[in-house]
Amino acid sequence: MQIGIVGLGRMGANIGRRLMRAGHQVIGFDASPQAVAALEGAIGAASLEDVVARLPAPRAVWVMLPAGRITEETIAKLGGLLSRGDIVIDGGNTFFKDDIRRAAALKEKGIAYVDVGTSGGVWGLERGYCMMIGGDKPVVDHLDPIFKALAPGAGDIGKTPNRESADPRVIEGYMHAGPPGAGHFVKMVHNGIEYGLMQAYAEGFDIIQGRASDRLPEEERFDINLADVAEVWRRGSVVASWLLDLTAIALAKSPKLEEFSGKVDDSGEGRWTVNAAVDEAVAAPVITAALFARFRSRIGNSFGEKLLSAMRKEFGGHVESQGAKK
Questions:
Q1: Is the omega angle on the peptide bond into residue 58 within 30 degrees of 0, that is, cis?
Q2: What is the pLDDT of residues 90-110, one digit of tens each?
Q3: Half-sphere exposure of 262 (CA within 13 A, CB side)
Q4: pTM to 2 decimals?
Q5: What number is the average pLDDT over the span 268-277?
Q6: Which is the catalytic residue, given 187, 263, 305, 306?
Q7: Do the beta carbons of residue 22 and residue 149 sit within 8 Å?
Q8: Which residues contact 175 (CB under 8 A, 6 or more apart)?
């Protein structure tokens, strides 16, 4: 298939590269000409108008920009450039209620809207992207070759019993979650859970490293190698996960994490998840506490908060905010 990609940052560019590896043709555009030039093999576009002009109908344009104003303005402009039967795909971390509104506005023009909650970060080019997709079924089915190329595939993960009649795409690492907004809703909760998991790891490792404190009785002090703990837990432990893999990588590179301040940002999804829990009257104490812990980290920092920063850098390339220790 041919597809336009708008936004060639860390994830947008790698999405383009993975699609081209699978034989798809990419027309790429970014506000930075250098980013366009760096996407080798793609057809570079000079503007949104140029993207639309270079795509055959029915067109599909994947927007991979930060949630907020820039995504809002870009999709609104595409709505004025595209034609009936074309498709806008938002693969960023958009708030699901914005998806519902945008889909309704584009539908009036005969333009389809698909929201894709995309997980994989800077590792997605090689590992693939886990995707949670919202949109009308015929449109999502039409785009299936794109999603299949981006997905990680079944790999060597054991099959779950009693799923013989379930949607086979889920085993490949992508799912049609429901109508517009459903994909980003599932991804929002995914990121909220991620907050809780990361916080639990951070607190646990903080407790282990704190055991060497001279405030404890000497016979109760242990100087435990945290990198070794992370590595052994990766292998057969019930708490093994990709986040733990990334923790092990971070600690192997920098056991004391001295390059991190521990000031931990939140990109919005945790707040949205907590707000959704309030709307639904669902108790979410772990996710809520993890979100508040990030707020607290901007006042003073522990080793655990440095580890949170290190994990964010490993999976998403996130750099601490300006003013944090470099």
A1: yes
A2: 999 999 999 999 999 999 999
A3: 18
A4: 0.91
A5: 96
A6: 187
A7: yes
A8: 131, 132, 133, 167, 169, 186
In tens, the pLDDT along 33-43 reads 999 999 999 99
Please state the rounded mean pLDDT for residues 81-95. 97
Q: Which residues pair with 213 in a beta bridge?
A: none
Rounded CA gap, 172 and 37, in Å?
A: 32
Alpha carbon distance 77, 84 (integer Å): 15
Beta strands in 171-324 (DSSP E): 174-178
Greatest CA separation found in the chain?
Answer: 74
Distance CA 163, CA 228 (A): 37
231 given a catalytic annotation: no
Is there a catalytic annotation at residue 97? no
Q: What count of residues does the chain have?
A: 326
> Which residue among 77, 108, 194, 325 is the active-site one?
194
Give the pLDDT confidence of 187-204 residue by residue, as tens digits: 999 999 999 999 999 999
More confident residue, 165 or 137: 137
Q: Cα dihedral sign for 53, 54, 58, 59?
A: negative
Beta carbons of 187 and 132 less than 8 angstroms apart: yes
Structure tokens at 72: 């809002």
Average pLDDT, the chain: 95
Give the H or E element holding residue 161. Answer: none
- Tell me the C-alpha distance between 96 and 103, whole Å: 11
Estimate the share of the chain in helix, then strand, then coil, as percent rounded to the nearest 5: 50, 10, 35
- Among candidate residues 243, 246, 272, the one with its CA nearest the CA of residue 184: 272
Residue 296 has pLDDT above 90, yes or no: no
What is d(CA 157, CA 159) in angstroms, rounded to the nearest whole number? 6
Of the candidates 100, 116, 98, the residue with the CA atom closest to the CA atom of residue 180: 100
